[in-house]
Amino acid sequence: MLKRIKQKVDRKFRENARMNSYILAAYHTNNQTFTKYKNVNDGKEVVICGAGPTFKKYIPLKGVLHVALNRALLNEKIKFDYFIADDYSGISFMLDYLEKYNCTKFLGHQTGVTDGREIPESFARKAKAERYYSDSFMVKDGYDSVPVVDINYLPVGNMPNIALAALQIVLFTNPKRIYLVGCDASSSGHYNEKGISEELKNIHEKDLKMAVSTSNAKVIECWQRLKLFIEVNYPDVEIVSVNPVGLKGLFKDCYQDENGELKFEKI
What we know:
- The protein is an alpha/beta fold and 267 residues long.
- The protein has a single domain, classed as sialyltransferase cstii, chain A, CATH 3.90.1480.
- Helices cover 34% and strands 16% of the residues.
- It has helices at residues 2-34, 88-91, 95-100, 121-126, 162-172, 198-212, 217-233, and strands spanning 45-49, 65-69, 82-85, 104-109, 130-133, 177-181, 238-242, 252-256, 262-264.
- A 9-stranded mixed beta sheet has the order 5-4-3-2-1-6-7-8-9.
- It is globular, with a radius of gyration of 19 Å.
- The N and C termini lie far apart (65 Å).
């Protein structure tokens, strides 16, 4: 009995020590990565481009900054200013493209996971990317993660899909407006299947249903949590969903016509 108790105490001690190490690493890494980007987009407009099917319909807005999530970077009609990803399976086939692409790149740590989501350090270095820690070492599936303001001191909330983490990063730069494009929050596939093996396709389809689609009640709860977070912490930042699917009605909705003009729905 005493031996089992000692083993349990020792295991808990090791887990706490590991957690403290991750927290220190998150503080130092995120501080080095994000501090210089605080408020850099004050007064500007930013488009976050997810890889949902409606991204095919998007006609690039002029005079805005563009952020690519995962394979959205493969859209050659847009010169992206930023790239954000945190799941290796979503970008593993893109290294050659990433190496050559000139933009600011953020690659997250999925520290503590063992299912192939962690982006290898060698991959990040070849891609010339800055790194950040999410709270995956504390909350494995992201459903209980919470968004944070001070991402330069705290791990980014690792909510179940990358758009939720990306919003925290973009909000930190303090733009006046954020457009969500291709953030379909549905299980209807991806924008571009270029270079994807059947094995990866299966992984991505499973991920769509589990972590992206708002048909999963936990996912929509995360979006609602993030909306409240924005209303409290960034009330002056307008969030606009372009050609919305799963997020329809959550933020301000608009649709693009064939000329790229935005038509806002009447409230």
